[in-house]
Amino acid sequence: MNLLGKVAMWVELLSSGEGKQRVLIGRELAWRVRELESINTLTEVEFSVFSQFGDDGIIQWLIHRLPGISETFVEFGVGCYQEANTRFLLLNDNWSGLVMDSSKRNVDAIKRDRISVLYDLQSKCARVTAENVDQLMLEHGFEGDIGLLHIDIDGNDYWVWNGLTVVSPTIVIVEYNSVFGVERPITVPYDPNFTRGRYMNQYFGASLLAFCDLAQSKGYDFVGSNSAGNNAYFIRSDLAHGLKPLTAAEGYVVSKFVDSRDAKGRLNHLRGKQRLAALRGAPVVNTRTGAEEQL
């Protein structure tokens, strides 16, 4: 075995060992949050094993409040799947799933990962759009009831969920744009080739209110956001089992990310109202009227 082969072998072994330790710790945390019958906000049950923020804990608490939930998931925009909101579901709960990303390099890395052999995980390289989302689901055997759907594609998230008709998830997680505020039901205009990057990297996705309106039209209740202020949680109303529905204003959390970039792509760390100022004049669509407006 050459040097590169040996290095790759040791990296895999170390990663595997670390992953097992993280799952064991996460399992203990999951048992603890399951014991909480009622909570005031989703942030009380947060913990992170593989999720970027505390979403692993929120998901564990929710799935054990929803008896009979289908043990299947779909997640869009997973990168190389080392940091994702469904990886712990796969490894700890043995759910089956489909993950998609627009980067071939990322998807190739997922296919090389041992989890693609040891677990029922399908991966697909695709740019998910409002036009192809249903077909992508059907091609991979997902139709009707599924347990969890997570949409995080930094752009057409609202339009993709709006266009999705062939699956009926119990839990839907969507990334909202906190910088858009809580008062306006707005989204970026639909462009199947949308890429994040304009307006200092702050121009993407939709407001929480736009998602709450869409969720209600599809028969979902909004039950809260994570503490990072980027992921919103929706539960199918007929399966909510007493989970308290919230208004957008009640569940809105302001994000504190400082991921803005200047014209040369360098981080410039805009904070607070500076982020909204960077968006002045940007076109958005009012999802209630269909009219194009400006920020």
From TrEMBL:
<feature type="domain" description="Methyltransferase FkbM">
    <location>
        <begin position="75"/>
        <end position="179"/>
    </location>
</feature>
<dbReference type="Pfam" id="PF05050">
    <property type="entry name" value="Methyltransf_21"/>
</dbReference>
<protein>
    <recommendedName>
        <fullName>Methyltransferase FkbM domain-containing protein</fullName>
    </recommendedName>
</protein>
<dbReference type="InterPro" id="IPR006342">
    <property type="entry name" value="FkbM_mtfrase"/>
</dbReference>
